[in-house]
Design a protein that fits this description.
The complex is a heterodimer.
Chain A: E1 9-15, E2 19-26, E3 32-38, H1 44-58, E4 66-72, H2 75-81, E5 88-93, H3 99-102, E6 127-130, E7 133-134, E8 140-142, H4 146-158, E9 163-167, H5 176-188, E10 193-196, H6 197-200, H7 206-234, E11 242-246, E12 252-254, H8 255-260, H9 271-283, E13 288-294, E14 299-305, E15 311-312, E16 316-317, E17 329-330, E18 335-336, E19 339-341, E20 347-352, E21 356-363, H10 382-388, H11 406-421, H12 425-450, E22 459-463, H13 467-478, E23 482-485, H14 494-497, E24 503-513, H15 519-538, E25 548-558, E26 565-568, H16 581-597, E27 606-617, E28 638-645, E29 652-659, E30 668-670, E31 673-676, E32 681-684, E33 688-692, E34 698-702
Parallel strand pairs in A: 1-4, 4-11, 5-6, 5-9, 9-10, 13-22, 22-23, 29-31
Antiparallel strand pairs in A: 1-2, 2-3, 7-8, 11-12, 13-14, 14-19, 15-18, 16-17, 20-21, 23-34, 24-27, 25-26, 25-27, 28-29, 30-33, 31-32, 33-34
Chain B: H1 15-39, H2 43-46, E1 51-57, E2 62-65, H3 77-87, E3 98-101, E4 113-122, E5 125-135, E6 161-165, E7 168-169, H4 171-178, H5 184-211, H6 218-237, E8 242-253, E9 259-269, E10 272-276, H7 292-307, E11 321-324, H8 343-346, H9 349-357, E12 375-382, E13 388-395, H10 422-428, E14 432-438, E15 454-459, E16 472-477, E17 498-501, E18 504-505, E19 512-516, E20 521-525, H11 540-548, H12 554-561, H13 567-570
Parallel strand pairs in B: 10-11
Antiparallel strand pairs in B: 1-2, 1-5, 3-4, 3-6, 4-5, 6-7, 8-9, 9-10, 12-13, 12-16, 14-15, 15-20, 16-19, 17-18, 17-20
The chains are: A alpha+beta, B alpha+beta.
Chain lengths: 704, 575
């Protein structure tokens, strides 16, 4: 970041499939500016730089006024999916080069015998074995054969390898051979990218660590080039704005870190929306809620409680079965824990065997799009159904920028849904809306069940273009009693990027019984992690006095169980593990286990799985990025009414139609209601009350 | 009343309500499953998902089953509610009652699988049932003995009883169980979690009825099962009629010293299938016998895998499949034969069926799979300080080649169980993993090649923390040590599996048990899968890639495919 804290503008930039979105926050006036340019798929940095240049032409005081550009990119993940990464080699311990292919023995779908594993990023002939072996306790059973490694390197040069991953057994705890190998590879293959497993993912389990390291190696040369081009591109702006990158765990890192560990930024896209929801949840005092996003092709859900981002280490890219866990390449870095399903406004409705309504998995996407777009789409989609039911106003789509064709939507639904089922078009449209709600509710139900949460104990925050249209029906199915629709709920995720703090999380394996670990071992482990994380944050500082918030936690389980519960580590005022922490940890684990699972056992040893250290820069700039509350337009709020199906029962009732930007804080309206906003429409059924919060968020409470 | 006429109309159900409720009941079954896995103590539940949840209407017709269900349950669960109703008709139930049984002949074939079920009430009447099964970490007896001859040796047996009455635990049964199992707190804890999940399912089913204003699940169940039945019948009708036979030999010998055989005659007759296992070997005095429900599971699984892999599991899906297995055979064993390791025989049933009907559906089957059966092995011993350790893990063979692609190497099939990483083995036991790698040339050659097996080598090494006076006990039920996984349509058979200790072959076909002294190394080499189609038809580029990547040796490539070592460079490759 710049040393000049007075930077006026902060830019958030998210590269999407069609558009590259920009949000600019003006710290002087509090204004928020939006901008959009067409994405340039061959080199996404072109669109980013074009957009920034155009913004500079539009806004005053640009030179010298831009503090930094917060950027999220799908470039790394796309390189993996499209197999456009570097020609990569893998060096492993003798006897273990096949780990990438053996995976964990699992098939991703027990009923699918025709599928194959997603192809490894490194073919077998480029997976080479190095003579070396270190045991779990650090003993060297076989010294590294340096000469042999040097001759392997020459082979790799002949193969035209441009990136090398090294993953040796037990390197997560004993990295000396990996370090030595790294030195030799650098020496023999200057200019080749290098990824060492103990640096990329210092955790036990050779498949996950190796997979993550290989993914890093595979995309590293591409990301290096990309961020360098971006940095060069913005360098001419006076004041030298910094380029910072959104990482998958919901925070920001500097570009140097992104170059070194590109796996950390792979899943930054969906994070923006979650961060924005987290912010909305906090300002509307929600303790626990699910952030629900529904766009054109997919819907996502993310459970948040106690203002914490849920982090998983089980992220995968390039799933052979798109939404099926276990079918992709593990990238075990801290990643916001989301559930995703292929249900969106573009999902196509059809009738199977003349009797069964289906929605998806096929999607009309943005092109040809729903029938009502009149862009060549013939199949009925969820958006068509939302239009025919009357929830959507054909003249208000995308703020009126696109006129929807109701007749085309009706014709598509009549032909492909109503007639095969022998029901009316109205009923068929309702059925499509209802079924896609049921499918999204099923996905959220599974996500909540994994967290041990029931719908009636939580709220829902709805966003995305189609989210607020469907959220009410989904919430009712889950027993959720309160839903919140933030202002600008239909706008993309770049907005959330501006809410992200510089943060970094380090995770390290430690697999021992908690009673057997001396306090000094915990202390040494956390110290090393602290040094690593703080070095990352130090490069992001606005000034020396900026305090760091840190959190030390530990994953514990009953000895022998493989999935753990994260509990806070007991530390003193200086952040060091306290004496007697073992007993405290034992008790905290039992308490957490009992709280989550209803019972606990005190006759089974408790084991440590991993230590986690998280640090965040307490920020001097205001990241709240709340727009000023715009005074409501002084005009009639209720502009009419439409007869539509109630989202719970399907019975037709009269909905009052409201205009969102005429709603004033404190207003209350009883359902059924349709609230038309610029980029979305909020549907509220019967037995519910809408109230407008001070910041303009809509809060909908359901009676039963 | 428990069966419905498959062709009956369900026009009284609104199609929108039908699809929405169907989606919902499937989600509920999955939610209940997640709840069992999440709250479970044992690794079998948490990691290997050895559980199942079935939702039923008031007549015992199954509407939905959890999609993560262990494969052994798919053919058994549909029968559970009716069996329960035979023992406890409607008038014998009260709200909050929980039924229990682990009788292998009612459930699916071994006593570790514990079934719990509860009714769903609305307005004082039963409107449905929720039944869950979960593999318990211990149920008493000799743990997983390969020597058992009778089921009495395999743990405590619960006939159908009430485990809870009106929401309250049956104290007598709990105490009885407590004194019969090891780790009683954890076992009872897992059962409590299972009870909680079962009640959750009941609550959820009630919510569905309320939301959709339904008085009964029966019309929905009828519509769901009729639809699924019709779809399965349509799939069957698409394949040619005929009678097809096959024999699969299993490595274990019968009392006369002959290999055990699964004999199957598959009759495809219009829109139905009959699988008749007449001629299959008699039950044996080893714990590998299958109860009929287990045979049902793997018979319908085999047919599902090739005809309708994504058809949901419910009472209708398998009505068109008739299963006949002679009583007293290894596929329909009688009480009290031992059956804990029934997967050793039962997992071969899909292979037997594929081999039979391969000519009717050449584009859908797999060649024989070295992956089936899974090699489950255990190693146990003492550390230097006398503390015991136990390793329960698997090695896997290769999947058979497919009509359009090679088999997957070293993969779990038909069930889905995860490996234990070498780094975890070395961290949690004193053993040393020497290597774990693909086994070159182990897949049968063919137009498409069988998946490779793996080679896993592990040592009771001298510098490890082992009690030198206490050899490491090893046991495994392997597969294909004598009989290969078979190729089809000219594809070659797989290589055989091998077990060695210090490179000396061991005979372990009928189950291998032994001791590993300090310094010795045990190696398992699993079989690959069989090939599909003639090797002569293999794309030379695939042969070249196999050689380049070392999946196939140059020598084997020359022999099987007529490979010329320099064919890639001079461009003279020809098939």
């Amino acid at each position: 970041m710049t040393s000049d804290g007075a930077g006026r503008y902060r830019i958030g930039c998210d590269v999407g499939g069609t558009f590259t979105d920009f949000i600019v926050q003006d710290n002087q006036t509090g204004a928020i500016h939006h901008h959009k340019v067409l994405t340039t798929p061959n080199d996404p940095s072109e669109a980013v730089l074009t957009g920034i240049r155009e913004l500079g032409e539009r806004l005053d005081g640009w030179d010298g006024g831009v503090a930094h550009v917060v950027h999220g990119t799908t470039l790394a993940v796309n390189a993996v999916i499209e197999r456009k990464g570097a020609n990569t080699a893998l060096l492993t311990t003798t006897g273990f080069r096949d780990i990438l292919e053996l995976r964990r023995h699992l098939r991703s779908d027990v009923y699918d015998i025709r599928g194959s594993h997603v192809a490894p990023l490194v073919p077998r002939h480029l997976r080479l074995e190095v003579t070396e072996r270190i045991y779990t306790d650090g003993r060297v059973l076989q010294p590294l054969d340096e000469d042999a490694l040097r001759s392997l390197c020459r082979r790799l040069a002949d193969e035209g390898v441009t990136s090398v991953a090294v993953s040796f057994l037990h390197a997560y705890a004993h990295p000396q051979h990996e370090r030595l190998a790294g030195t030799i590879v650098r020496d023999e293959l200057p200019g080749v990218s290098l990824s060492l497993s103990h640096e990329v993912h210092p955790e036990v389990k050779e498949f996950e660590r190796t997979s993550t390291t290989v993914a890093n190696a595979y995309v590293k040369p591409i990301i290096e080039g990309y961020v360098d081009r971006l940095a060069e591109g913005i360098a001419p702006i006076e004041g030298g704005p910094a380029l910072v990158m959104m990482h998958s765990g919901g925070g920001l890192i500097d570009r140097g870190m992104a170059r070194e560990l590109p796996v950390r930024v792979m899943e930054s896209g969906p994070v923006g929306g979650v961060l924005q929801s987290q912010h909305v949840g906090a300002r509307t005092a929600l303790e626990a809620f699910v952030a629900f996003d529904m766009g054109g092709t997919t819907a996502k859900g993310c459970y948040l409680a106690d203002d914490e981002l849920p982090i998983t280490m089980e992220f995968e890219v390039d799933r052979a079965l798109r939404f099926r866990a276990g079918s992709g390449l593990p990238v075990a870095v801290p990643t916001v824990d989301l559930v995703e399903v292929g249900a969106g406004g573009g999902s196509i409705a059809s009738v199977l065997d003349g009797e069964l309504l289906q929605v998806g998995p096929e999607s009309a996407g943005a092109s040809p799009g729903p029938a009502c777009y009149r862009q060549g789409g013939e199949q009925p989609t969820v958006t068509d159904a939302d239009l025919v039911t009357g929830y959507l106003n054909p003249g208000n789509f995308l703020g009126g920028r696109m006129q929807l064709d109701v007749e085309a939507a009706e014709a598509a639904i009549a032909r492909h849904v109503a007639e095969p089922l022998g029901i009316s078009t109205d009923r068929a449209a309702w059925g499509v809306h209802e079924l896609v709600n049921e499918e999204m509710a099923a996905a959220l139900r599974g996500h909540l069940a994994e967290h041990g949460v029931e719908g009636h104990d939580i709220a829902l925050v709805a966003y995305g273009g189609a989210g607020p249209v469907h959220a009410f029906g989904v919430a009712r199915k889950l027993g959720i009693k309160r839903m919140v629709v933030p202002r600008n709920a239909g706008v993309g995720s770049a907005r959330g990027f501006l809410l992200a703090p510089p943060s970094y999380q380090v995770v390290r394996s430690l697999r021992r019984r908690v009673d057997d670990v001396e306090t000094a071992v915990f202390a040494d482990g956390f110290d090393a992690m602290r040094v690593e994380a703080r070095a990352v944050l130090d490069r992001m500082r606005d000034g020396d006095d900026q305090p760091v918030d840190e959190r030390l936690t530990i994953d514990l389980s009953y000895w022998g169980q493989d999935s753990g519960i994260e509990v806070d580590f007991p530390v003193d005022d200086d952040g060091n593990p306290v004496d007697g922490c073992q007993k405290i940890l034992h008790d905290r684990f039992l308490e957490a286990y009992r709280e989550r699972l209803g019972q606990a056992y005190d006759d089974v040893p408790v084991g440590v799985l991993r230590l986690r250290y998280r640090a965040e820069l307490a920020d001097s700039t205001d990241r709240s990025s709340d727009e000023q509350v715009v005074a409501p337009v002084d005009a009639e709020v209720v502009v009419g009414n439409r007869r539509c199906p109630d989202p719970t029962s399907g019975d037709h009732v009269d909905f009052a139609v409201l205009v969102r930007d005429r709603l004033a804080p404190g207003e209350r309206h009883e359902g059924p209601l349709i609230v038309e906003d610029d980029d979305t429409t909020v549907v509220v059924g019967t037995d519910a009350v809408l109230s407008v919060a001070d910041e303009g968020d809509l809060i909908i409470d359901m009676a039963t | 009343m428990a069966t419905t006429n498959g062709s009956s109309s369900h026009s009284d159900i609104d199609p929108i309500v039908l699809t929405s409720v169907w989606t919902r009941v499937q989600a509920i079954a999955d939610e209940v499953g997640t709840s069992i896995a999440r709250a479970g103590f044992s690794t079998v539940l948490r990691e290997n998902h050895d559980f199942s949840c079935g939702l039923f209407d008031e007549n015992g017709t199954m509407l939905a089953q959890s999609s993560q269900s262990a494969t052994g349950h798919i053919g058994a669960m549909p029968y559970l509610a009716r069996t329960m109703l035979e023992h406890f008709p409607h008038e014998d139930w009260e709200e909050g009652d929980v039924f229990i049984t682990n009788d292998p002949w009612i459930g699916c074939g071994h006593s570790n699988d514990l079934y719990l079920g509860t009714p769903v009430y609305r307005d004082g009447s039963i409107v449905g049932f929720v039944i869950t099964s979960a593999h318990q970490m211990d149920i008493g007896g000799r743990i997983a003995s390969t020597e058992a001859r009778e089921v009495y040796e395999e743990g405590i047996l619960f006939p159908p009883l009430k485990f809870y009455r009106r929401g309250e635990p049956n104290h007598d049964l709990h105490e009885m169980l407590r004194s019969n199992v090891r780790f009683a707190d954890q076992v009872l804890g897992d059962m409590r979690a299972q009870v909680g999940a079962t009640f959750l399912g009941a609550q959820r089913l009630g919510e569905v009825l309320d939301q959709y204003r339904l008085a009964s699940l029966a019309p929905v169940a009828e519509a769901i099962t009729a639809t699924s039945e019709r779809r399965m019948r349509e799939e069957i009708a698409r394949i040619p009629d005929g009678e097809f036979e096959n024999v699969v030999r299993i490595d274990v010998n019968d009392a006369k010293g002959e290999p055990l055989e699964i004999r199957v005659r598959v009759v495809i007759d219009g829109d139905r299938i009959i699988c008749d296992f007449e001629g299959t070997s008699d039950e044996v005095d080893k714990p590998i016998n299958c109860v009929l429900n287990y045979t049902r599971s793997y018979t319908v699984l085999g047919i599902k895998l090739i005809l309708a892999p994504f058809l949901p599991n419910n009472d209708g899906s398998y009505r068109p499949i008739e299963i006949r297995a002679p009583e007293g055979s290894i596929l329909n064993t009688r009480f009290p034969a031992a059956c804990h390791w029934r997967h050793f025989v039962g997992l071969r049933v899909p292979d037997a069926i594929f081999g039979a009907i391969k000519d009717a559906v050449p584009d859908r089957i797999l060649a024989g799979s070295g992956a089936s059966p899974v090699w489950l092995f255990t190693m146990s011993g003492r550390r230097g300080d006398g503390a015991p350790f136990l390793l329960n893990a698997h090695v896997m063979g290769g999947l058979g080649a497919r009509p359009d692609v090679d088999g997957v190497s070293a993969v779990t099939y038909p069930p889905n169980v995860r490996d234990i990483p070498a780094e975890i083995i070395e961290t949690e036991t004193p053993l040393l993993v020497r290597h774990r790698q693909l086994r070159q040339d182990s897949g049968g050659a063919g137009r498409f090649r069988g998946g490779l097996g793996e080679e896993f080598s592990i040592s009771a090494w001298e510098d490890g923390d082992l009690d030198p006076s206490w050899p490491v006990a090893i046991s495994v039920f392997p597969g294909h040590l004598r009989e290969p996984a078979t190729g089809v349509f000219g594809g070659a058979d797989s290589t055989l599996g091998e077990i060695t200790i210090d490179d000396v072959p061991e005979d372990g076909a009928a189950g291998h048990e032994g001791r590993l002294s300090l310094g010795q190394t045990l190696t398992y080499r699993t079989p690959g899968g069989g090939g599909y189609g003639s090797p002569a038809e293999r794309d030379p580029q695939l042969v070249e890639a196999d050689v380049r990547n070392g999946y196939v040796s140059v020598a084997a490539a020359k022999e099987s495919y007529g490979y010329k070592a320099d064919s890639a460079t001079d461009g003279a490759a020809d098939g």
